[in-house]
Amino acid sequence: MERRQLHVPPRTIMTPGPVEVEPRVLQAMSNSILGQFDPSFTFIMNETMELLRDVLETKNHWAYPIDGTSRAGIEAMLCSVIEEGDKVLIPSFGRFGYLLTEIAERCGADVHFMSCAWGEVFDPEEVIKEIKKVRPKIVAIVHGDTSTGRLQPLKEIGFACRENDSLLIVDAVATVAGTEVKTDEWLIDGVITGTQKCISVPSGMAPLTYNDRIEKVILERKSIEKGIASKEQLGRNNTRRRIQSNYFDLSQLQDYWSPARLNHHTEATSMLYGLREGLSIILEEGLEQRFARHRLHENALVAGIKAMGLSLFGRADSKLPTVTCVNIPEGINGDAVRSMLLDEFGIEIASSFGPLHGKIWRIGTMGYSCQKRNVLLTLGAFEAVLLRHNARIHVGEGVQAALNVYKSVEKEEISI
Amino acid sequence: MERRQLHVPPRTIMTPGPVEVEPRVLQAMSNSILGQFDPSFTFIMNETMELLRDVLETKNHWAYPIDGTSRAGIEAMLCSVIEEGDKVLIPSFGRFGYLLTEIAERCGADVHFMSCAWGEVFDPEEVIKEIKKVRPKIVAIVHGDTSTGRLQPLKEIGFACRENDSLLIVDAVATVAGTEVKTDEWLIDGVITGTQKCISVPSGMAPLTYNDRIEKVILERKSIEKGIASKEQLGRNNTRRRIQSNYFDLSQLQDYWSPARLNHHTEATSMLYGLREGLSIILEEGLEQRFARHRLHENALVAGIKAMGLSLFGRADSKLPTVTCVNIPEGINGDAVRSMLLDEFGIEIASSFGPLHGKIWRIGTMGYSCQKRNVLLTLGAFEAVLLRHNARIHVGEGVQAALNVYKSVEKEEISI
C-alpha cells in the first residue's frame, strides 16, 4: 500500500450511526492534552457528569462515560451487576436484544429470553407477566432497536420491576438526546447510551448512569487493585463475588470518577472534551426542542419516502423516531442502491442485519445529521438512484412532500 | 456549578502519560465523520494496521487497536487467551505487574506470581527457571513499568517461552515508539500498547498485535453473535470455551478488522484518524532516530537532575529510558512541589503508586513531550520550586548541565 496523507471525503451520513458531528465538538477535541489528575481536567470530568445527569433526566449521582464504544457501556453495566446464575429476563425485539443476551450469558447469567417478531415491540403487559413468573434479578431491555427501527415503551415495565424488586437496565444507545428517555420518572435503574448517535459526538464513549439500587450490588462486589490498595483494603476485597472484568468494574470506575480519583485507566482526554461539548450543545438546544426537531425531520423524511411510493417496515405505532426503515422494492438490489448513493452522491444510508439484510434500508435522522438540508438532499439523490435502478416510483414527489412538511411548520417555533 | 465554556489551560506535560500530542494528530482528529463501512474508512483501518505492524516491528497479520485505554488492550489479550484454570506465570516488578495479575485472576487463571523489589528487574535466568518449573500456558510480563521506571530485558525470556511452548504476552504500553520493542525478533506472541505515551496520541486506544500461535487459541474459542450469525455459524459456536467478554473477544474483533467486516462495535472514528496520523509521524521520523531522540532528552534530563544534587531511584542498568524516577529529598513534600510546578508554571510531573507514593517523583520524556524546550523549562522551574521549598540543591547547575548535553551532540545527526 502506498503511503499517503489521511483522506476523509465529505459525506452526508443518514445512517443509525455513527452520524455527523457538530463542528464545535471537533473543535473542542482539538484542544491540547491535560493530565488526568490536573485540576483543570478533573473539573471537566465533574462538568461532564453534571451535564450528563441533565441529558439523562436523572438525579443519580453516578453518570459518567465508559471509555469504549456503546457495547462497552452495556458490558460494564451487565458484568458489574450480574453474578453467576443470576436470573436475567431479556425481552428482545431485534438484533440488540440478542446482544444483551450474548453479553449476559458471558457474565454467567441464567438468561430468560423472550422475543417478538422483528418489526414489532412488546405489549408491556406481556413483559410484566413474565417478570412476575420468572422473578428475575435483572430485566435488560433495549429502548430503541435500530436493527428494526422500533421503540419499546418502558414506563409500565419500570413500575413492574420496582414492584417485583427486579433491576431494570436499559440500552438507550439509539434514543438518548433524540427522543424522551426519562430515567428517573420511568424508574430505570441503569441506562447506557453511546456517543455516536443522537448525542452526535464521535464513536468511542458509552455514557451511563445508575442509581443506588445498582450501586448497592456493585459495592458488595468491590475490590481494589493490589498495586494501589493498602493492606486493610486488600483484606476487605471480596474476591469470591469479584466482578469478572477489571476494565468494566464499575466499583473501581466510580472511585476514579469520585473525589478520591483512585487511579484506574487514563481517561480518554480528547473524547471527554468532545463529549462535554456535545452534551452542552444538547442542553443549549433544550431537550424538548431537540426532540421536536427530531420528530419534524422524521416527518419530512417519511412524507418524502411515502410520496415516492415506497413503504415503511414495521408497525407505525412502535416506530423509532430516529430511524426510518424502508422496505426494499422487489427486484431492487438494496446494496447496489446504497453503494451508488455513497459513490456518486456522498450520501450514506444503512442496510440491516440477519434476516432483514436485503429486505430493508435504514435511514437515520440523528443529532447533527438530523437537519433539513440532509433530508432534502437525501430524498433527491435517493430518487435519482432508484430511477437508475429501474424502480417504479412516483418521480418528483418525494422532495416536494418533504418541502411541504417544512412549509407547514414555518410559522411554528421549531427551529429547523 | 455554573455553566461555562470548555477551558483547557496550556500545559507542559512531563509525566509518564498522557503526554502532549503533535498538532498534526489533533488536526487529523478534527476531520469529519465517515461511516464505519464506508470504503474510505475501511481503507483507513487497513492503513492503520499496516502502519502499526511497522511500528511494532512485526510481520504478524493481526495488528489493530482496541477501542479503550491501554488496560482495555491488556484485558482483551488476556481474556481471549486465558481459559479457566490455565497456568499463567507473572513476573512482576511494579504496579503494572499487579495489574496483569488482577486481570488474569478475573479471567480464571491459575496465577503463578513472582516478584522482585520495586526498583529492580529480573535476571532473565530467574524467570526462565520458573518457566521450566511451572510450565505455564502463558507468561505475562510488563516491558517497561512506569511505576518504578524500570525496563525488563525480554529477548532471552522470549526464546525460553518458545522452547517451553508457553505464550509470551507483553505489556509494552510505556515503551513502544520510545525504545526498542522487537516483537518478532524477541519471539513475543502478543504485544499490547497504548496511545497516550510514546505514540503521542490522546488516550483512548490500545493498539495490539498477536501471531498465529495466539490466533490458534482464539479461533478454538470463537463464537459469532446470535443477532448476526447464520444457523450454521451458531451451530459451530463453542459456548463451553467461549471468551468471557464480548467487547474484548479478539475472535470477533479480528473478523471486524478483516475483509469480512463482520459488525462488532462502531470503530472510534476520530481516535482512529488520530492513531493513523500518530503512527505515520513515528515512521516519518524513523524508529531508530526516534529512539535516539528519546535517549538524548533522557540524558539531558538526567544530567540536569544529578547536577542539582538530586539522586535517581532504582538501579541504573535497568532504567526505563522514557521515565526518570527522582528520589524526593528528605523533608520535602513531594505533592506540594508537584502542585506548585503545575499551578505556577503549568508544568506537570508525576508522583507514584503504593509504597513509592511520597518517595519518588516520576518525570516522563515521551513522544511529542520529549523535546529540548520541555526538558529545559522543566529543569528551570523544578529548581525554582525546590528552592521555594527550602531544598538543599546546587543552584543554577541543572539547566546548564542539560544545555551541555545538547551542546555535545550539536554536530551529531540527532534532530532535537
Could you characterize the architecture of this molecule?
Two copies of one chain form a homodimer. Chain A has 416 residues and is of the alpha/beta class. Chain A has helices at residues 23-29, 39-55, 70-81, 95-106, 124-134, 155-163, 212-220, 231-236, 250-256, 269-285, 287-307, 334-345, 372-388, 397-408; strands spanning 12-13, 62-66, 87-92, 110-115, 138-142, 144-145, 150-151, 167-171, 190-192, 206-210, 323-327, 347-348, 360-364. The first copy, chain A, has two domains: 21-282, Type I PLP-dependent aspartate aminotransferase-like (Major domain) (Aspartate Aminotransferase, domain 2), CATH 3.40.640; 287-408, Aspartate Aminotransferase, domain 1 (Alpha-Beta Complex), CATH 3.90.1150.10. The two termini of chain A are 44 Å apart. In chain A, helix 4 links the parallel strand 3 (87-92) and strand 4. In chain A, helix 1 packs antiparallel against helix 10, helix 2 (39-55) crosses helix 10 (269-285) and helix 5 (124-134) runs parallel beside helix 6 (155-163). In chain A, the strands form four sheets. In chain A, strands 2-10-9-8-5-3-4 form a seven-stranded mixed beta sheet, with helices on both faces. Chain A is globular. At the A-B interface, helix 1, helix 2, helix 3, helix 4 and helix 10 of A face helix 1, helix 2, helix 3, helix 4 and helix 10 of B.
What's the topology here?
2 copies of one chain form a homodimer.
Chain A: E1 12-13, H1 23-29, H2 39-55, E2 62-66, H3 70-81, E3 87-92, H4 95-106, E4 110-115, H5 124-134, E5 138-142, E6 144-145, E7 150-151, H6 155-163, E8 167-171, E9 190-192, E10 206-210, H7 212-220, H8 231-236, H9 250-256, H10 269-285, H11 287-307, E11 323-327, H12 334-345, E12 347-348, E13 360-364, H13 372-388, H14 397-408
Parallel strand pairs in A: 1-12, 3-4, 3-5, 5-8, 8-9
Antiparallel strand pairs in A: 2-10, 6-7, 9-10, 11-13
Helix pairs in contact in A: 1-10, 2-10, 5-6, 11-13, 11-14, 12-13, 13-14
